[in-house]
């Protein structure tokens, strides 16, 4: 899914990854490439323009934590903006009581409407509903037969009649559903190869006659902007409640998925990701964004890093460092923050330049506990000034923390090395860590 877009965006991020900071000029270069990638993915032009502006603004305003690469920060920003563009999440189906809840499916011929009717039926059965499918596509010769076959496969009843009046079939079907205790009715209407007045009139008449509670447009995502344009036209006639995008499994570009919500204002409810009847998924913009970027791990990394090492704290450490007042308490806090981020090695491995140096290092819970015990056995003065810790003090601290004097010396050494290296690299939290473990 979306392979070509993913590949192009990733090469943009890579081109930024070697540089130290996000600046006007490198972000402009990167955004030119992002824009190109999106246009090639067949995303609507106006949307691309606005999207790139939003990303650029967010990138220039972003605090780049020293430990992260600009490429990583940009990935997170693009991820968030993609999520916004496709969102918000709205996969609810509004059921009415008393039923039946009527769901009308509209869309062009071949978009996957009939298949989707059965997929949706299956989905509803899994939610404890008793749907009825209505073969109201009287246009495509094999549509009724196809729905009947799908009905047999899924065990979902199908209503059909041998007449050419779509409005009457729909009306009769609702009555039939009421009589048979079906609580949801899925109406598969007729499409055409292209939008034409006859089709629009027919589906509008059916809608008028049975006043569906939900009207979903089924769209073939592989047709890109054509899908989006037809969605716009359907929306003007039918007041859609949402869109079901099919064939995402075969869509390398992603243009329809990215534009349809922004163009029509209607949420994507479900996506079809295969021909089989269980291949219907609720649409989640955040998951889709990370699928597009193929970078879920980096996004998580950046989020966690931002949470734990917020700019303020980094600045505070830096100031202390400059004043020479970075003590054991700060050191401990730094270690705790690292611990909170999860497996230290796993996190840092993701950071270019750090992973290799951390191969044999891990900070597990027990090591951190020991560090804490040692620091807590120090007097406040000792915590501020490790040079005070002479052999008698070392013995006292070891006794107080249930450790050996050796453990105390090694922590003091580690602390000093960290502090000195942090000074040298001017304070980035991870700079300190890197020094700590590489010496
Ligand atoms: P309709 O004319 O809109 O009713 O379209 P159909 O339901 O007959 O579907 C047209 C073709 O698209 C069929 O071959 C389906 O199997 C296929 N199709 C539908 N949804 C999907 C999907 O999500 N993924 C894939 N790969 N094929 C799909």
UniProtKB/TrEMBL annotation:
It is an enzyme of class 3 (hydrolase). Its EC number is 3.6.5.4. One of its GO terms (cellular component) is signal recognition particle. Residues 379-392 have a biased composition (Basic and acidic residues). Residues 379-408 are annotated as: Disordered. Gene3D superfamilies: P-loop containing nucleotide triphosphate hydrolases, Signal recognition particle SRP54, nucleotide-binding domain, Signal recognition particle, SRP54 subunit, M-domain. GO terms for biological process: SRP-dependent cotranslational protein targeting to membrane. It catalyses: GTP + H2O = GDP + phosphate + H(+). Composed of three domains: the N-terminal N domain, which is responsible for interactions with the ribosome, the central G domain, which binds GTP, and the C-terminal M domain, which binds the RNA and the signal sequence of the RNC. This is Signal recognition particle protein. The gene is ffh.
């Amino acid at each position: 899914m979306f392979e070509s877009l993913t590949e192009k965006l990733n090469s943009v991020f890579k081109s930024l990854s070697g540089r130290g900071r996000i600046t006007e000029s490198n972000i402009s270069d990167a955004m030119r490439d992002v824009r190109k990638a999106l246009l090639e993915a067949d995303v609507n032009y106006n949307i691309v323009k606005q999207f790139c502006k939003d990303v650029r603004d967010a990138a220039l305003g972003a605090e780049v934590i020293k430990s992260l690469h600009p490429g990583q920060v940009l990935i997170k920003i693009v991820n968030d903006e993609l999520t916004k563009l496709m969102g918000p999440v709205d996969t609810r189906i509004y059921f009415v009581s008393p039923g039946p809840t009527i769901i009308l499916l509209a869309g062009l011929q071949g978009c996957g409407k009939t298949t989707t009717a059965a997929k949706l039926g299956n989905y509803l059965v899994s939610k404890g509903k008793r749907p009825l499918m209505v073969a109201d596509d009287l246009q495509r010769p094999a549509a009724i037969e196809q729905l009947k076959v799908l009905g047999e496969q899924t065990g979902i009843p199908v209503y059909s009649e041998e007449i050419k009046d779509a409005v009457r079939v729909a009306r009769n079907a609702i009555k039939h559903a009421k009589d048979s205790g079906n609580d949801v009715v899925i109406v598969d209407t007729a499409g055409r190869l292209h939008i034409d007045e006859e089709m629009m009139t027919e589906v509008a008449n059916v809608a008028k006659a049975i006043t569906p509670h939900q009207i979903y447009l089924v769209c073939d995502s592989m047709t890109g902007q054509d899908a989006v344009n037809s969605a716009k036209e359907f929306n003007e006639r039918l007041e859609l409640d949402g869109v079901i995008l099919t064939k995402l499994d075969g869509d390398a570009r992603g243009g329809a998925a990215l534009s349809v919500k922004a163009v029509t204002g209607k949420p994507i409810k479900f996506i079809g990701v295969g021909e089989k009847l269980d291949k219907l998924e609720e649409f989640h913009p955040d998951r889709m964004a990370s699928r597009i970027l193929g970078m879920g791990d980096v996004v998580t990394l950046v989020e966690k890093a931002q949470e734990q090492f917020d700019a303020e704290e980094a600045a505070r450490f830096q100031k202390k460092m400059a004043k020479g007042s970075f003590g054991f308490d700060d050191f401990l806090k730094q270690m705790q923050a690292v611990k909170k981020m999860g497996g230290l090695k796993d996190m840092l491995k993701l950071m270019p330049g750090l992973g290799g140096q951390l191969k044999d290092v891990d900070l597990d819970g027990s090591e951190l506990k020991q560090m804490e015990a040692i620091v807590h056995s120090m007097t406040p003065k000792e915590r501020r000034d490790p040079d005070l810790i002479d052999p008698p003090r070392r013995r006292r601290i070891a006794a107080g923390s249930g450790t050996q004097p050796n453990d105390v010396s090694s922590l003091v050494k580690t602390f000093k090395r960290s502090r000195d290296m942090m000074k040298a690299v001017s304070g980035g939290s991870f700079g300190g860590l890197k020094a700590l473990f590489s010496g």
